[in-house]
Amino acid sequence: MTSDADNPIVLDVRAMRVAVRTDHGDGPVLVDDVSLQLRRGEVIGLIGESGAGKSTIGLAAMGYTRRNCFIVGGEILFAGSDLRAMSLEQRRALRGLKLSYIAQSAAASFNPAMTLMDQVCEAPIRHGVMGRAEAEAAAVQLFRELDLPNPETIGSRYPHQVSGGQLQRVMAAMAMIGKPEVIVFDEPTTALDVTTQVECLAAFRRLIREHRAAALYITHDLAVVAQIADRIMVLRRGKMVEFGEARRILQEPQDAYTRRLVRERIASLAFVARPESAVPLLEVDGVTAHYAGKPKVIDDVSLTIHRGDTVAVVGESGSGKSTLARVVTGLLTRASGDVRFDGASLAPRLKDRSRDQLRRIQMIYQMPDVALNPQQTLLDVIGRPVAFYFKKTRAGVRARVLELLRQMDLPENFIDRKTSELSGGQKQRVSIARALAAEPDLIICDEVTSALDQLVGEEILRLLKRLQDELGIGYMFITHDLGTVKRIANKVVVMLRGRTVAGGDTASVFAPPYHPYTELLLSSVPEMRPDWLDGVLARRSARASA
Amino acid sequence: MRLFGHKLSVLAQIGLAVIALNLVMAIFAPLIAPYDQTTVLGDAWADPDAQHWLGLDNLGRDLLSRLIFGARMSIGLALVITALSFFIGIVSGFAAAVAGGWVDQALSRFVDLLLSMPTLIFAFVILSVLGSGLPVLIVTIAVLDSTKVFRLARSVAVGLVSLEFVEAARLRGEGWWWIITREILPNAIPPLTAEFGLRFCFTFLFIAALSFLGLGVQPPDADWGSMVKDYRDMINFGYAAPIYPAAAIAILTIGVNFVVDWMLSIHSRGQGEGA
Amino acid sequence: MEPARRAATPGALWPAGNDGAGSGVGRLILQRSILGVLTLLAASALIFIGTEILPGDLASAILQNQATPENLAKLRLDLGLDKPAIVRYVAWLFGALRGDFGHSLANGRDVLEEITPRFANTMFLAAYAALVAVPLAVGLGLAAAIRQGGVFDRTVNLLTLMTISVPEYFLAYLLIKYVAVDLGWFPSLANVSSDTPFLDRLYYAFLPMVTLVLVIVAHMMRMTRASVLAVMASPYIEMAILKGLTKTRIVLRHALPNALAPIISVIALNLAYLIVGVVVVETVFVYPGLGQLMVDEVSKHDVPVVQACGLIFAATFIVLNMVADILAILSNPRLRQPR
Fold first, then answer.
1. Cβ neighbours of residue B261 under 8 Å, at least 6 residues apart?
2. Does domain A280-378+420-511 fall into CATH 3.40.50.150?
3. Inter-chain touch A111–C240, beta carbons under 8 Å
4. Which residues on C lie below 8 Å from B112 (Cβ)?
5. What fold, for A9-266?
6. Which of A351, A486, B81, B233 has the fewest C-beta atoms under 10 angstroms from its C-beta?
């Protein structure tokens, strides 16, 4: 880093407040008394869970708020003048040139009816700082810097014709083309698979450094922000919790909340070696399946789960891991292969299975919002499997539901609440209670933490772990998050395009010699070390040149 | 006032009041109407006075009383038809969504076909052969209208069937009856209620239009639509007679639409961020 | 966070993907056209069956109480009722394709001759109303969408909510009472004939046109507003704002092209509705169109005329819907530019 004199303050946010105001009156305060000074060439990471106000700050830094939101206090100084005091026209003149924005979902943020080149060049041409030819040349140059394939011609394509990772980089080009002084990155890699995320992160960082732009980098992932930010601001419910040098925040967090965020990320639940019982609980043997009239989604997949096992099924989107769950449950009929449960072959179709077989395999879903009927009370939801499988009396059902609520650390007076009144983490606990009410031997967990905030997700994982220790249930744990896998699974199956590429004990799969894809996946998972990304890139380029 | 757990808008309150007033008028017509609807009380087209607020009609009957009694036929018929069309539409729509496969295909294609033709024209074709008896009207319009209910019910059910709480019920081994009545129906009621309002408006206007064209309710029965037809010639002599029953029709449909519009708006609330 | 799995939606009419590179749009349009022809065929069958569902037979229904055994038998022979239904359907269909719809049972005239001038009148009225209504509705819809939540938007919203709820004849009689009778500006009867000069036709048909316009503008305007608003709420519009583009540019270059497909289908839908709405309005103003003819012949049980009118109305309706779908395909960049 060079001295402050070379790096003047470009963005100075002072005691900013953003609040919701509608026709019906004032709503909640989204951002409360946040200040930050961004210098030229500096990247400040804004980190927090959902509802922390990160995106609102990012947008407000451009003088923009979403519908019904208003900046109600403080100053936002860009190059010395307050964005709030400017006219609409003055703010407009800055956006797209001096201030630019990169959104989370590139697919939704590009106009489907315009070519990429038209959209990338639009801002400088419309603001009158470049001619068409000049803008196109600059765009091609940026495409090249961002390692996009066919930089000369990719601009003539439409958004739906390129992949998500490429589109995200085109959006970076669109943000950079006006030579901005401040760029707001709003969770730009969150929607991407891990292997794609590495490429995008590397491209973004190189671009920021080469152009010496200042940036606000918004994310919920500490490991991602560690790679790119000079300073980190931790936010919670619209307020600043802690703000400081990236290394210090990561290594010596002062605030209790930050410490929890950092610790949960590093913490690892120890592996438990389990004695293998004679008969496996679930055996998936060479299963192939496809949807009607479509090509195979999973091809010759096998795995074995014993009582008390946690078997992780890992893969990126489209790898067929959720389809495998549908075949095991019978929602999708397998085309070939066999699925045996407790030694007996399971009928391929759901309706041909016995009630007891159905009871013994339960499922927990990714989105607790749609996994629970919003019109039902907790008694309805959790009590139904009790009544359905065990034919208990009403009083018996109620007593069992109360017992389950206690086990889930949910208050007993929740029993008559509707599921729609609960928070995301509470809903997921209810989903687990519903599964447990059937007293199953195997629970299929389909991305159960990925829709939840980090700390809430950690609590759910700890709960699942505790239940396994108490009840000896087997878990089939479907996830794309290798961090989670390493910590909770004793066995792993790695899937790629419908096939298993590696499998076995977690320790052996995640230790050399790796399968190349396993290694790619492993090396792509961001780590908290700020030099992690440099290390990955160095190793990859060394391998490529070797 | 609150309904479905949401605060009613001013327009929705007006709408509910209009609906209530009309229902009261229809149910208690003999108590409310100042005169009998069939008695001849004076000269045809006598001007309004203190006894006859809207004057007398083409046969010398009290126009206001005829309007009040007309509510029975107009609203009653529309309610019966809408109820029947809902029954047909929901049963077949849910069946198609839940059964899937060829049942769904066959029903959906048939409905596509019926919807590919203007309802009024198809009704004409059938009425030209069968005549305009009340049972014919009820069944014809209910069947034609049920196609739209079918589409909504099917899409609501398909949307819900793919939700994971329904999948969870299937995995538990629940039967279709449980899934439809306990999991799907409670969630389908708000959209279906709004649709009931819309369909009621449609059948109500449709019956009135047929009557106005002389193809709906036949004498001696009378609804507001046939009253417009009976009085229409007088408009050229400066009488407002056909406007009264037409206004009665308009006021009720506007009222229902106010309520429906509010119902639809509570579903879309909370969405739509942007400029 | 991994994006949530999207549930498969069965019954989608169009395959979203394009497996044949380059030929995607052409094939979709061809498919849609074939579907249109098939629908038309099925609709003709439905109209024919509609007149066959009679308990007893057509001849006794037509003659009613004048049915003597002799004239019943003669009529049955005239109508060809001795042949099986399928044979009569095919004969009727091929006749219709050649323009031969048979003869009116009421007056024995050739149905085509009876229909042709009426059809021209109806098309004139519908086109008249459409030319006024479409620009008005799209303009108002855009204006309301841009000023979303403003006074203009709220006022227009309330007014249109009221006019869509109101029957055509209510508006028509209000116009007749106040504009035609009290003020005397326009005639209350639109009794045009084939030798009425063009400008006089515009004058005579003015009130029927206004009635139709009032009814469909409300629908069209509300749907235009809704589809523009849906587009305006999308992230790429936010992106355009954050690129510092002007409001005009955002609406014209970013919102409108994407709202075009829904707006086109709204227009076609309402033009199709116009064809039906015309029936009532023609009756109110005693305008000699196809709708009025059809209403008259329905009460006379004049089946050949009813069938012919029904077929023409249905065909217009189906063709309009088909054109709407094809225009929507053409205006969708995802379909126009295959992967």
1. B11, B12, C161
2. no
3. yes
4. 39
5. Rossmann fold (3.40.50)
6. A351
